[in-house]
């Protein structure tokens, strides 16, 4: 029986995508060859790469000022690649620190130029998105993590500033429409809402590049990958193909507005289940900061002994991946695009049954 997959990533993908991907591994488009054994420069694969780029552009409404790249190295490599390509001693990168991933981005950027942390929610264990802080003039960019996968917080509005934004959207890309014109660069590891692990989406504004003085190694220079259409070296063909299938699914299911409505309905159901339940507490301070993608919650103080019994009940009901990130403990239900409302209802019912038994 297929489980209800609440894993934070690698994560749930649409069932038809799994089936099409499996078939492409056996026989790609009736070629008599697997997708995994054909050249990345064959017309059959370059068509996949082209379609994936067009889908990204189309879904996000990107203007011609932007390039779409499919790279390797995970979102973690973008922590340094963004700064290496955009920042030097003449500039200053502003960063908002909203969790472990932001903190890693800050640490890596410091090697390439001055960095100012303009706001941080670290003191409250990242249980909120900072608001109302002054943003200094003259920043080269302001870096934000739009959804904090571990702490369950998410920006519901972009910071009010004329400064160009750079964003890690790993865990909420394609979950709702975005005002892309505000960004110089957007990056996202695919393995949450876009596809399997192994490819990283980078969307970069062309005129943001070429401004730093340093030598950039060829593989780490965005301009290399722009020039070579994400095929300077062998691209991750399978993750790109599966991402393309997932983006086709997003489009066929109504695009980003439809995804947003679907995701908000799931989040509403999930947070109602947490709030109405006397054994659980949400971890995020203000309701408006709660992530639509990753709902984090704990057992109430004094009932931590029920941790294993709750996870057992989840497993019995076919709900997988509900355990929180190892650094924070507790529980986390990830509600990415491909998850159905019915699966969230199953988890809500488990929470209810659990309370009936233990409260
Ligand atoms: N940023 C965010 C918001 C994440 O959730 C993650 C975890 N996948 C990362 C960055 C790191 O991504 P990767 O494992 O692709 O390097």
From TrEMBL:
It is found in: Cytoplasm. InterPro entries: Aminotrans_V_dom, Aminotrans_V_PyrdxlP_BS, Pser_aminoTfrase, PyrdxlP-dep_Trfase, PyrdxlP-dep_Trfase_major, PyrdxlP-dep_Trfase_small. Pathway: Cofactor biosynthesis; pyridoxine 5'-phosphate biosynthesis; pyridoxine 5'-phosphate from D-erythrose 4-phosphate: step 3/5; Amino-acid biosynthesis; L-serine biosynthesis; L-serine from 3-phospho-D-glycerate: step 2/3. The modification N6-(pyridoxal phosphate)lysine is found at residue 192. It is an enzyme of class 2 (transferase). Its EC number is 2.6.1.52. One of its GO terms (biological process) is pyridoxine biosynthetic process. Gene3D superfamilies: Aspartate Aminotransferase, domain 1 (3.90.1150.10), Type I PLP-dependent aspartate aminotransferase-like (Major domain) (3.40.640.10). GO terms for cellular component: cytoplasm. Its main location: cytoplasm. Homodimer. Belongs to the class-V pyridoxal-phosphate-dependent aminotransferase family. SerC subfamily. Catalyzes the reversible conversion of 3-phosphohydroxypyruvate to phosphoserine and of 3-hydroxy-2-oxo-4-phosphonooxybutanoate to phosphohydroxythreonine. HAMAP family: SerC_aminotrans_5. This is Phosphoserine aminotransferase. The lineage of its organism: Bacteria, Pseudomonadati, Bacteroidota, Saprospiria, Saprospirales.
